[in-house]
Amino acid sequence: MDPPSGGTLLVWLRLRGTRPPGSVMIFVFGDCELDPSRFELRRSGAVQSVEPQVFDVLVMLLRERHRVMTRDELLDAVWGSRFVSESTLTSRVKAARRAIGDDGASQRLIRTVRGRGYQFVGEVSTTGAGSPSAPSRPEQRIRFCTTSDDVRLAYATSGDGPPLVKAANWLSHLDYDGESPVWRHWMVELSRRFRLVRYDERGCGLSDWEVPRFSFDAWVDDLETVVDAAGLDRFPLLGISQGAPVAIAFAVRHPDRVSRLVLLGGFAVGRRKRAATNEELDLVEARIGLTRVAWGRPDATYRQMFAARFMPEGSQEEWKIFDELQQRSTSPANAWRFLNEFADIDVADLAPKVTAPTLVLCSRREPDNMFEQSRRLAGLIPDSRLVPLDSANHLLPERDPAWRHFLAEVDAFLPTAAAAGADDAAVASDVERPDT
Question: Where in the chain is the domain with CATH 3.40.50.1820?
Answer without folding.
Answer: 140-428
